[in-house]
Design a protein that fits this description.
Layout: H1 2-28, H2 44-48, E1 59-61, H3 64-70, H4 73-81, H5 94-99, H6 102-123, H7 142-155, E2 158-160, H8 179-189, E3 203-205, H9 210-217, H10 226-242, H11 245-249, E4 254-258, H12 263-268, H13 271-275, E5 278-281, E6 296-297, E7 322-327, H14 333-342, E8 350-353, H15 362-368, E9 369-375, H16 384-391, E10 394-398, E11 417-418, H17 427-432, H18 436-449, H19 464-477, E12 479-481
Helix pairs in contact: 1-4, 4-6, 6-7
Family: Belongs to the glycosyltransferase 47 family.
Transmembrane segments: 10-28
InterPro entries: Exostosin, Exostosin_GT47
């Protein structure tokens, strides 16, 4: 009995800690890659997305070698020993906390998830799901996306800073053309993904609302950005002095969310927020600093009555008699070019209006048309794109420098049409040249992809709330973080 007890102590106090230590060393020594290597859903991602140089001192990109290391027995041993947190009240042993930092434990869990997803992609494996299994051409890699989504559901934890009072923090209106900002802020705050223990979080939500700042703090006719940027700067200064989590990664595992056009400019006033953090933006303009490998493109969604009631659905392709439709104000140069070319045309197939005639229904025209034009206005985002998807009209995207929502998962070419500004005079010919069977297929794919843009109360799996979180998850899982003092 004494010999058995002695052997058990050796295993417990010597062997297991050595295995844990070796696994952590493997994770921390993974070498960075210069390309955006996760997710490898689509080959063009590797050349299209680049991480800003200089991040690797704190945030290391995962590469093929990293994936191999993440799947190694040493890392598996680390993950087997990680304490399982069943709820917020579960006690994590003091011995474990003494040997490994909170961030190292979080990174070990992410390494495990990353290895599982990459193995699914390599082996083209299908995952079981009682509700929905992504399939078909609308996805760049349906199996990898599904596995990643399931890992997100299982692992993702969001810590919401509780500092600050409404209306500038923790609140934004859920109505109007920018209402998706308020809806998502509220849904994050009451979400099952929220953790009250910041030590276990993968990402940290900075609950600033630029829409509320523009409504309640902006002084009309004052063109200075500094007072608005100061609100964001002061909040980041508060959380960075009160808590350790911002400083340990310089904000790389933090995110903000905003649909207001001013959100990019306000974030620019906080250099580390602009450079390092994940910014979830409707105004996803790559010519204005939006970084697809770090930031998240959020669809602008207008719910007139605060719900999707009356917005979903439309007739089949055979019942759509109009080729293409648009109605809207002349905001920005793209709409100006569109109106100059098509506003006064007498072609029944091409219905382009600045002001909709009184005998026409706006949503009725969406449902009568095969294609619906979704141009940029003063900024790149517009609710017409989602309105078209809701009502079965194929979106025609007239946008420069726009990063499409969920583009790392969805293949937009299967359910939408891109038209360049220089091609506006040839708009009808371009659309007429699309074969009928191709149009019918795009319309069908648009109906299938609709679930990812739907707004539900409460949220449902795979809807826009979960797709936004999955986009954040992808950006978080694509980097490895360690304490800044180690760099």
């Amino acid at each position: 009995m004494a010999g058995t007890s002695s052997s058990s102590k050796i295993v417990y106090f010597v062997v297991i800690p050595l295995i844990l230590l070796s696994g952590i060393i493997v994770i921390l020594n993974q070498k960075p890659s210069s390309a955006y290597s996760w997710p490898t859903f689509h080959n063009s991602l590797n050349s299209r997305f680049k991480l800003p140089r200089g991040r690797h001192s704190v945030a290391e990109k995962t590469s093929g070698a990293a994936a191999t290391a993440a799947a190694s027995p040493a890392v598996a041993a680390v993950e087997d020993q990680l304490p399982v947190v069943e709820n917020e009240g579960t006690i994590i042993t003091a011995e474990f906390r003494k040997n490994y930092s909170n961030l190292e434990m979080v990174e070990a869990r992410l390494a495990r998830a990353r290895a599982i997803i990459q193995e699914t992609e390599r082996n083209n494996e299908t995952s079981y799901d009682p509700d929905y299994v992504p399939t078909g051409s609308i996805y760049r890699n349906p199996n990898a996306f599904h596995r990643s989504y399931l890992e997100m559901e299982k692992e993702l934890k969001i810590y919401v800073y509780e500092d600050g009072e409404p209306p500038l923090f923790h609140y934004s209106t859920s109505l109007g053309i920018l209402g998706i900002e308020g809806i998502l802020i509220h849904q994050i705050e009451i979400s099952k993904f929220r953790t009250k223990d910041p030590r276990n979080a993968h990402v940290y939500f900075v609950p600033i609302s630029v829409q509320s700042i523009a409504t309640y703090a902006y002084v009309k006719h004052n063109r200075a950005w500094t007072p608005l940027q100061d609100i964001a700067r002061d909040y980041v200064n508060l959380i960075s002095t009160k808590y350790p989590y911002w400083n340990r990664t310089l904000g790389r595992d933090h995110f903000i969310l905003g649909c207001h056009d001013w959100t990019p400019t306000v974030s620019h006033g906080v250099p580390l927020l602009y450079k390092n953090s994940i910014r979830v933006l409707c105004n996803a303009n790559t010519s204005e600093g939006f970084k697809p490998s770090t930031d998240v493109s959020m669809p602008e969604i207008y719910l007139p009555d605060g719900t999707m009631d009356g917005l979903i659905g439309g007739p089949p392709p055979s019942a759509r008699s109009i080729l293409v439709f648009y109605a809207g104000g002349v905001h920005g140069y793209i709409r100006q070019v569109l109106m100059e070319q098509w506003k006064n045309n007498k072609d029944h197939d091409v219905q382009i209006h600045e002001y909709l005639p009184k005998d026409m229904s706006y949503y009725g025209m969406f449902r009568k048309s095969k294609y619906c034009i979704c141009p940029s206005g003063w900024e790149v985002a517009s609710p017409r794109m989602v309105e078209a998807i809701y009502m079965g009209c194929v979106p025609v995207l007239l946008k420069d420098h726009y990063a499409k929502p969920f583009d790392d998962v969805l293949d937009w070419s299967t359910f939408s049409v891109d038209v360049q500004v220089s091609e506006i005079p040839d708009l009808k010919n371009i659309l007429m040249a699309i074969p009928q069977e191709r149009y019918v297929e795009m319309q069908k794919m648009g109906i299938r992809v609709r679930r990812h843009f739907e707004v539900n109360f409460p949220p449902k799996r795979f809807d826009v709330f979960h797709m936004i979180l999955h986009s954040i998850w992808l950006r978080r899982i694509n980097i490895q973080l360690h304490e800044t003092h180690e760099s």
